[in-house]
Specification:
The protein is elongated, with a radius of gyration of 20 Å. A three-stranded antiparallel sheet has the order 2-1-3, with helices on one face. The protein has 89 residues and is of the alpha+beta class. The chain is built from two helices and three strands, in the order H-E-E-H-E. Strand 1 and strand 2 form a beta hairpin. The two termini are 39 Å apart. It has one domain.
Length: 89
C-alpha cells in the first residue's frame, strides 16, 4: 500500500515538473512603405527561465507591445511597421 501511495506522489510530481519549459518568443517585423515591397525580419527573443505556456504567451505579448512602442519612434510619413510575436519551445 505504501508503495502505491509513494508511486502516486512521484507520478504527480513528475507531471507538475514537466509543465514548465524554456520558451522563446519568435517575433516577425514587417516594414512596408508605399511604392516598395514589404520587408520582413524574424528574430527570437530567448527567455532564460522555465515557464508555463500561458506565462510565456503573456511574456511574448509584452515583448510585442514593447517592440511596437520602440518602432513608433522611427516611423515617419507613409511607413507602416507590423510586429507579431508567438511563444515557441
Amino acid at each position: 500500500m505504501k508503495k502505491c501511495v509513494l508511486l502516486a506522489f512521484l507520478m504527480a510530481g513528475l507531471g507538475f515538473a514537466s509543465c514548465k519549459k524554456t520558451y522563446s518568443c519568435q517575433c516577425s517585423t514587417t516594414l512596408s512603405k508605399t511604392g516598395y515591397d514589404p520587408y520582413t525580419v524574424s528574430s527570437v527573443e530567448k527567455n532564460d527561465i522555465k515557464t508555463t505556456k500561458k506565462t510565456a504567451e503573456k511574456i511574448c505579448a509584452q515583448t510585442e507591445k514593447q517592440l511596437t512602442s520602440n518602432d513608433a519612434d522611427y516611423i515617419s510619413g507613409n511607413e507602416q511597421v507590423t510586429i507579431s510575436c508567438a511563444a515557441k519551445l
